[in-house]
Amino acid sequence: MSTEVKQYPVTEDAAARAHVDAERYARMYAASIDDPEAFWREQGQRVDWIKPYSRVKDTTFGPGEVSIKWFEDGTLNVSANCIDRHLATRGEQTAIIWEPDEPGEDALHITYRELHAATCRMANILADMGVAKGDRVVIYMPMIPEAAYAMLACARIGAIHSVVFAGFSPDALGARVSGCDAKVVITADSAPRGGRKTPLKVNTDKAFKHCKDSVKSLVVRRTGDDIPWDDARDVDYNEAVKTASDSFEPVEVGAEDPLFILYTSGSTGQPKGVVHTSGGYLVYAAMTHRFTFDYHDGDVYWCSADVGWVTGHSYIVYGPLANGATTLMFEGVPTYPDAGRFWEVCAKHSVTQFYTAPTAIRALMGQGDQWVEKHDLSSLRLLGTVGEPINPEAWNWYHRVVGGGRCPIVDTWWQTETGGHLITPLPGATTLKPGSATKPFFGVQPVVLEPQTGEEITTAEAEGVLCIKDSWPGQMRTVWGDHERFVKTYFSDYAGYYFSGDGCRRDADGDYWITGRVDDVLNVSGHRMGTAEVESALVAHEKVAEAAVVGYPHDIKGQGIYCYVTLMNGVEPSEELRQELRQFVRTEIGPIASPDLIQWAPGLPKTRSGKIMRRILRKIAEDDFGALGDTSTLADPSVVDDLIENRMNRK
Ligand code: WT7
Questions:
Q1: Ligand 1 in contact with 413 (CB < 6 A)?
Q2: Could you tell me if the CB of 359 is within 6 A of ligand 1?
């Protein structure tokens, strides 16, 4: 197998300019594993500390207690690290390039000095609304500079932000506002995206029905749309900003004080609030941004993610700004007004590093090379991908057509929980293989475990579940308000390790190939979703008795959402009902959770003890029912015949 894989050695150009070449990678990696304490003591200096740390690493993955602390006795302010410390040397340099949804609208170039003033004004407004250190603030915003100001303003105050992706429904927003007991929701009138608008303020008002009366909202005028208004609760940012002071003293926080909470889906129950703290997270985000993307002064770096996801946190805002970089923020979508938009933006702003998701690459690949070839992409030096495994065909297209055959591709494997890249090529050090995330980052010790026994597979070539042996500074610290869930989710199945939830293969060269989730988590267009969440949305509908949700292979999205639905007695299935259920799930969770296929299931395959046999449902959804395996333990084997007969994903 590995002999057939085409390899791309480090290019001369990448080697010549890179911060890290192969020799340095080997040396630094060995040092990071041999003596993590010494390694991170030095790397921690990437960040400016108010009070320096004396302790570096204090972590245990159990058994028993799980506790993760880095640089614990140090203090700092994250916004001062992302802004103030650059003012003397690069105050007039562009910090953020903002590209609006409509190509006809002017882009903005915000300097570090302007970013400082804007962040301070936002911090003053929030402080006037009663936000103080340790308070939670939810950010439900379009991709506009004010979203970054809002994050940094919270960090400046020492408040904890929780960004909720603007594509989430009012119900999902309300659950998150209540879940972290937020004092304020920062939102906008509407969010333009791909020529359409999401009514964020209207959604926020609806979400507030599920929240405490005391929650306030701060509303940014993005479109100027007419919006409902409640003087007792709503503060107009565009008014307040006129008189807000443009200085605000950064608040000193401990390294282990939370910086943000980000809700993400798991295999059971409702989304959990992943908690990241200040010191270790920032060190890790800055370091990975610098080395993985080989960022140098003068580069224009663009990550096309949304700040609603961790990628936007670490690689649009915190990592780049901590490094004094120029980071591009894009409000729109890859295909608006046409399939050339990404490349038009790259050419317009002379982007040097471009980081996006495989689903976008696949969608654009399908539109034809002419959309790329129209634009001058000679400024590009490096390409990146994240979010799901990239198929070699898409990798090759990205490399050849977008990168002109000269740009290394960094396929970065990581998770909301990990804060930053864990397995990734470094452009000056790593031989690339299309589809492989290749090698661990500094300080990261991946292990492949035999799924059943949990034994570590120590041969070079290995296939099993992907775990991490020891901590790294960017690791999540807990689940907000539920440390037990943290321990149970990540440290119980395989004692002593961090369990990623992914399967992987390690080849003879020690390169890692991520094979996808081994739990009941779907990855739909790079968006993570629990099958349990979609199921609970479906069964909340009055006509649904029972539902089981699985993923199936989808050409563009990676995975599609396949739902088996058993209706209440006497309810007739119909196409209208299918639409109704689809809409219902969108309302409960958001458009990203929209079911692709809904099959009416008179019964679900269950064991005699009543457990749904998902393995069978997955096979049927994959149109691979020849390999159903043993069905003899089913309470009623005949339901399977009906499901096969009426399967919806026929190739
Ligand atoms: C899951 C994490 C990390 C930011 C975006 C997603 C999958 C992520 C890769 C990659 C193969 C990948 C994994 C992981 N994933 N990157 N390069 N190759 N799979 O963050 O929403 O927390 O999802 O995304 O399955 O567990 P997330």
A1: yes
A2: no
Q: How confident is the model at residue 191 (pLDDT cuts 50, 70, 90)?
A: very high
Topology alike, domains 112-254 and 525-646: no
Report the topology of domain 8-76+445-517.
Luciferase; domain 3 (2.30.38)
Examine the pLDDT at 324 and tell me if it is beyond 50.
yes
| Domain assignments of the chain as residue spans, ordered by start | 8-76+445-517, 112-254, 525-646
CA of 161 to the centre of ligand 1 (A): 22
Q: Selecting from 3.40.710.10, 3.40.50.2000, 3.30.300.30, 1.10.10.10, what CATH number does the domain 525-646 have? A: 3.30.300.30
- CA 384 to ligand 1 center in whole angstroms: 13
Mean pLDDT score across all residues of the chain? 96
Q: Is the reported ipTM for this assembly greater than 0.95?
A: yes
- CA 516 to ligand 1 centroid distance, Å: 8
Measured CA to CA in angstroms, residue 534 lies from 142, 171, 323, 598, 600 at distances of: 25, 13, 39, 12, 16
Q: Which residue spans within 458-532 are E strands per DSSP?
A: 462-468, 478-479, 498-506, 512-517, 521-524, 527-530
**Mean pLDDT across 84-107:** 98
Whether residue 474 has its Cβ less than 6 Å from ligand 1: no
Distance CA 52, CA 495 (A): 34
**Cis omega before residue 337 (within 30°)?**
yes
Query: What distances in angstroms separate CA 334 from CA 106, 331, 489, one per listed residue?
Result: 18, 10, 35
Tell me the C-alpha distance between 91 and 76, whole Å.
21
| Ligand 1 centroid, distance to 474 Cα (angstroms) | 15
- Rounded to whole angstroms, how far apart are CA atoms 349 and 379? 9
Instruction: Evaluate: CB of 519 within 6 angstroms of ligand 1.
Output: no
Name the percent of the chain lying above pLDDT 90.
93
pTM above 0.90, yes or no: yes
Pocket of ligand 1 contains residue 388 by CB under 6 Å? yes
pLDDT at 318: 99
Residues sharing a CB contact under 8 Å with residue 196, sequence separation 6 or more, in sequence order: none
Kindly state the average pLDDT of the residues 199-216: 97
The CATH number that domain 112-254 falls under is 3.40.50.980
Q: How far is the CA of 113 from the centre of ligand 1 (A)?
A: 34
Ligand 1: which of 314, 514, 557 to mutate, most ligand atoms within 8 Å of CB? 514
Instruction: Please state the rounded mean pLDDT for residues 131-153.
Output: 98
How crowded is residue 30: how many other Cβ atoms within 10 Å of its Cβ?
12
